[in-house]
User: Fold these one by one.
Assistant:
Number 1:
Amino acid sequence: MTDTNELHVEGLTKSYGDGDPVVLRGLDLTVPTGALAAVLGPSGCGKTTLLRIVAGFLRADAGTVRLGNRVVGGPGVHVPPERRRIGIVPQEGALFPHLSVGHNVTFGLKGVDRPERRRRAEEMLELVGLAGYGDRMPHELSGGQQQRVALARALAPRPQLVLLDEPFNALDSALRAGVRADVRTALRATGATAVLVTHDQQEALSTADLVAVVRDGRVAQCDTPQDLYRRPADPWVAGFVGDAVLLPGTVDTDGTVRTALGTVPLRALPEGNPRTGTVLLRPEQLRLTGPTAQGAVRGTVTDVCFYGHDAMVTVAVDGHAAPVGIRVAGPLRVRPGEETGVRVLGEGTLHRDGCEPTAL
Amino acid sequence: MPNTPRAAPRSAGASALASAPAEASAAAGRGRFRTFHAFRTRTGRRPPLVLLVPACVAALFALLPLGYLAVRALERGPGYAWDVVADARTLHLLGRSLGLTAVVVAASLVLGISLAWLTVRTALPGARAWSVLATLPLAVPSYVAAFAWLSAEPSVAGFGGAALALTLVSFPYVHLPVAAALRGIDPAQEEASRSLGHGPSATFLRVTLPQLRPAAAGGGLLVALYVLSDFGAVSLMRYDTFTRAIHTSYRASFDRTPAAALSVVLVVMTVALVAAETRTRGRAGHARTGTGTARPAVPLPLGRYRPLALLWCGAVAAVAVVFPLGTLAYWLTAGSSAAWDLGGLADTAWATLGVAAAGAALTTVLALPVGVIAARHRGRGARLLEQAAYAGHALPGITVALSLVFFAVRYAYPLYQQLPLLVCAYAVLFLPVAVAATRAAVLQAPPVLEDVARSLGRRPWQVLREVTVPLAAPGVAAGAALTFVVCMKELPATLLLRPTGMDTLATRLWTETGAGSFAAAAPYAAALILLAAVPSYLLGRHRT
């Protein structure tokens, strides 16, 4: 057994054939031992291809996959899936319909005698909160339960790495949060490194220790959820991981930036000290004030969307073409058409113009 | 019961072929599709040797008759073969075969489309029952239909009798796909046409019928294939077509080249038909995707045409189902004193069961690797393997039999007129049935399960044994049962290849009918229908 379960992926390239678009273009990713990383990206960004290459079901055109100190895929090396010690949890669980829950869980245990298998199955089922379900058949379980069994099955042979392919997609939203939390707890308990593929930014931010945003076959940014949200690498990432207010701005000598919403302090200046750029703020950084309040910018409410836990108020501001979104917690006191003031709290991030994803 | 739109095992194979490229392109991993689809991709992965080697053996086995037939036909030089082909008598036969085919196809189209429309789209009383009745003739072998008509009225023999018997057994090949297509058409289109000022008949002609064309064309081509390959009905009706001429020529002469040359012409014609059928099927499939009906159409009231519609359905059911069964019942009772040779019947039935079981077993074993590869692997190699296995789809039974006879006489004389050769002929002929069933069964099992098994430490052959085969087993077994039934009913290859002195129910029925001893033939026909009905019944229960 190796003492490290780090996943290290370097320079992965993959296209499915002549004339087909390139899916991965030099993707790099490192997931430290025991961490749960989310690979987040829009449909078609190559995240599932990445997963299949890591699992060994596909061969990359170039690049290497290292697990601990073993190279499992690379030039001239292709360890078949059954020898990689990588567990997978597919969408909708994919339990073997002809085997009982217990036999599903013990499917990957080899060279283990019967009492030990039984013990291990019970232990795994307990871990995912399904103790005593071993004799059921998969079709007798709900979708969430099937998903938990799939996780137990993947964890039973003590893999170095677990890959989860949008495992919560098929569950309805009420169930999702619960299963998600259970999966996280179970993964933590076993200490396996895990990679979760998803296109749901909320899922990625709330579940993972580390989020890699994939765009056009490359990792656009890999950071902790907080840093990703607060310090996105570019406006595209900012918009992908959450609602963003993007404003053109001019940098002042004191490290602040002038925008249509007033002067905003910056977290850090981007490289090259540009004079102008795009300022990113989050809707929860904006506050509604009275129309004449000091330090506020005047605007007109154009729309109000109420979500229950909070609301999104859209305000048209002088000097900026697109209306800005403002997240408001608590009771709403404005209606469309009313005059209001807007004030910025906290710091923004400045992004150089011309580094839009299309220019990559 | 039969909510399966697939017309018959043969068409199932063809449609399976046609849908493969669409799936492959959908799974090509462009990623616009949900990841589940990408997990199904099998881009560029070579099948494991445990599958590849036996699949290649099966493919070569299926191609052997075709290849050897060509060798044999050209043995005396292409000039001699050409003389046979270009002979006036051959052209005459060609005309007769094509004429019979054209008449049967036209009649089947009329019967199949009218019944499909009446049962699916109108307020016909008992529509469901009529629909089931319209599929039953599929279970009647052509020679049983011929027996029924000949025994009732011997003067029917000839073109008319052959066309009648063949139409009444093959029109379900049109009825089934057309009925399925009718169910698939969005009624909103017809409503739009009505609201734009077209009456019901104009709407049917201008909106509905054009959309039925792919289904009707596919069904019509299947009927054509059936007629060209048929031996039982034309031989009993003493109407000379290619198949009967090949049989006569083989029996009558020591020079086997003419039989081989005629067989090659027949094979060329059937191959062309199969190719045409596959193409229309591909297009029909594309036309259907995405239409998925939101709601069923409102049945059209028949009004004062109701008695007429009922009369029409009743008449078809009477001649296609009631009449053959009635004739059979008549001969069973009327001829009881003459022909109840129970011992002989039991021996023949037993021999039939044995040889059909052997045929089904060999066919299923050969089909397994090909079916798995066809379901799980893309690429030129996999496609070639599958298409090779489908060779029997294009080969009339008589040509396969002839080719195996030639082959055995020259290279494997101890096998000549021995059971193994007959079993091999069954395997070549019905490999498409079993491959289609296996492929469909394997496709039902999500491939992601195999990925999971690999990730849990199983080698490819272990995955096959522990996951793929157990999951596909019910479908494979159904395919084996279907193969068993078609083996039992097979006539021309059995006639040529059976060991001397051995009879199956089919050959015995053919001999007795040919000799005009209808009362003696009847028990064999009844036994055949009963024995064939058991697996069919089990299959129907298994599916529901």
Number 2:
Amino acid sequence: MTQAQLAQGNAPLLAVRDVSVVFGGIVALNGVSFDMHKGAILGLIGPNGAGKTTLFNCLSRLYQPSSGDILMEGASILTRPPHRIAEIGIGRTFQNVALFPNLSVLDNVRVGCHARSSSDIISDSIRLAWVRRGEAEINKKVHEILAYLDLEDVAHTVVSGLPFGTQKRVELARALAADPKILLLDEPAGGLNHEEVYVLGDLIKRIRDQRHMTVLLVEHHMGLVMSIADHVVALNFGRKLAEGTPAQVQADPDVIKAYLGSKDQ
Amino acid sequence: MSAATEDAVTEAPAVEAVPKRAMTLGLGTSLAVLAALVIAPLFVKNFIIFQMTMLLIYALAVLALNILTGGSGQFSLGQSAFYAVGAYTSAILMEHVGMNYALTLPIAGIICFAFGFVFGQPALRLSGVYLALATFALAVAMPQLLKLGFFEHWTGGVQGLVVTKPDAPFGLKMSQDMWLYYFTLAISIGIYVASVNLLRSRSGRAFMAIRDNEIAASAMGVNVALYKTLAFGVSAGITGIAGGLGAIAVQFVAPDGYTITLAISLFLGMVVGGVGWLPGSIVGSAFIIFVPNIAESISKGLSGAVFGVLLFIVIFLVPHGARQVAIVAQQLIGKLRKG
């Protein structure tokens, strides 16, 4: 058991229970189960095609599992449509950055506040007092997050013109704007150089500690996962191969076989 | 100025990037345009005033399409159908019910909003060119629906309806055309301001988020289906008000006034004005009203061909429409000030 689990008792924040996903005849996920505990950084690893992104997309409700259940604080998320996932505290970033390219950094992050605010088109059109107050609150929060992630200099820049590394930070800012309890990061280190990966690792830890979030990290970059994760789940061919501390998973013979192949093959 | 320091930081991408408040004009420019619109009719003949009224009315219809396409990224070649419903709603309420012309407009807007919202439901399954085709079908069907014998008592069938032009109220000494112009101007300003507010608000950001990336918008909690249909509703509602005003200004509604040609003209106006740039709507409207006349004055027999050539030139020179011209002008003025 990890320290985070011991500290928080045993009720998981998010529980993946025996989830299977079948596309036509292909079993993309086969009975995967694991728990995420509050305040932990969970690393999800596996070779290409292991089912990491499939699982990720189940969590953000883009895919419907064929069987099994996903519980957030004890309640199933599978009855919720995709746009009602943010409001229960699940935020995400995308593998290849899915920002709103024609909007400024500010507006991208403001959209992140959508799930935590309300309005209607009539009140918005005539800018009623409560709408103005809401916008002021959104702006305050957005500027706080931009300062936190050191993005203030580019606040008014349209995101499509920004370097890839900066776009990734904008995406993180947008996810933070919804005050998620769980942050799902899909290959955040992809496309970053060696130095940037270390900065990112520190940033993820800092976000977990300072903003009290739980992080699910899907990552190819072993160095990053092993250095910051409290707990690691390894997938291969849609099945859970191993689970435990980074050291345990790294030493697991099945994991080594999946990554390096064995002599028998 | 803060703009100068920002320029220094982002010198290279500044050319490509859209300027900060790209959706609207600055306060000074807005007031200048407004002043021109208020003063101009005092110096021209009634026929020109009528044309200026039509300019505002089509500008509203182009603006409505701009919210739909520029804002939420959905195409429509069916705006003429919403325009027709608005026009007929106003005409029927005025002539059959005897309602005051000004009161018919909000009703036209609400009916068209509902119509657009409902039409937006099936449109949810379509995107891009397929949505354009579905709306095209709506535009083609509308004139025939209006001719149906079943509605003839209300719509006047093929003959259409004649609408009485309102007099200036409160004993104002003003021609009917002039009064209608200022009435239209007031409504246009109101709708323009509301549209700018809308696009800058949480709802507007949801529209634009959907336009740019539906999956990401949904992950941020935006109800994609709801906001897409809302965009259709808002666009149809504004188009309906424009249609109602059009019926009052022209004093006549008939099915053949609202064919697909109108829808394509509005689409053209949006492209010429700059997709997603609301002030461009009036430029686009001017293009679709005046350029055909110019083409006709150049060659009566080949006016269509001349119009085509003029359109081609505009699209070739300024593919982003009036917005591009505005950006270039802004940069020139900026340089002159610095120099």
Number 3:
Amino acid sequence: MILAALFGIGDAILYVPSLTAIAAKQDAWISALIGWGEGFLLTYLYVSLSMRYPNKSIFQYSEDILGKWLGKAVAVLFISYFFIDASLMLMEIGDFVTTQIMQETPIEIILVLFMVIIVMGVRSGAEAFSRVSELLFPYFLLLFTILIAFISPQIKIENVKPVLAHGIAPVFGGNFRYLGYLLESVILIVMFPLVKRPARAAKAYILGNLLANFFLTIITAVAILVLGADFTVLLAYPSYTLAQKISIGNFFERIEVLMAVIWFITLFVKITICYYATNLGIAYTLGLRDYRHLTLPLGMIMIVVALATMPNRPYFDSFVSDIWMPYSLTYGLFLPILLLIVGDLKKRYEKRSEQGTM
Amino acid sequence: MILMISLLIALFEVPYLRRNAMNKEMLVFFILLVVGTGLSIAESLEANIPNPLDWITFVYKPFSDFILGTVE
């Protein structure tokens, strides 16, 4: 559950406030609120898909359902999605560190350092990094609470007024961009067969997703309340600016790097899972016995892909706000539904043909 | 520098793979390593590496315009 929650928060905590505010302006918090329902429905879809094929990963049952070659094609598509997502997030952390904290350090150094940690995490296995995420969660909770508590004196209710000034349509515009992040939780489907008790895992999956939504809604609402809608849109990292604005009695201030630990924790968990899923997927699809040997060379490729994907900041922003959501929709919604329906039809067909012969 | 890193990676993994006679794994490992090394050298020489996001943008642009057009 904690893994799912930290995963869901992931890089979204840095970007969601400004992304939803692009379209929804001061109503961005409503966009995030709608996300609760969507998140629940989506995780329900993923859970029902994985519960049908317990102890099998998505790469295996896509072959069972769609046949060998079509199934492999779907698996390759999924792997490419995981890989792109992982390298994008790697780039996000590099960009965040070089633009906000250490401006003189070349970005490659930060990418390589972070990649080494991720490779270490992936090589030690799924159980190890699930436990690590459980260890890190209290720190995340503590830091998040400090952030919200100390910024709350600066909340101005006028910033959210007028509510629904432009009707409901822009709210959905913001919500669609938010949905792009929710759909990424499809990656957790890979972790599902590794859990011993599927019923409990299903509950944890859904609860974790709701928890992630809870944190994201709070951060979006607070960003709008403190910074105002127009300012939130302009900022690259609104939640970081939020932390910079903390000032209690002109004494307790400049604690933003401490707050940056929040995103290091969540991003580490998310990238590790994405990268793990990529490696596992490649190993399954090619019929390898162990995924661990792929981690190091693939890490080299990932660093270069990460550098290539973000030539400049505006390019990346327009990609995330316009293209990412439809792209995720293919993997987060259409493919799982396709697998579910085709799998269902196949089962029914097999049952009928069995009855026919009897 | 990059070659040294790839050499280190190879030295790190190859003995284990050979001991367990994982030939298929070895092949995949070396393909990935060569691609990774090649890309890294290309990057360090500031060659133009194709951006995968451009392809994705090309495929999804009409779809995105349609969806966002419904709400804006």
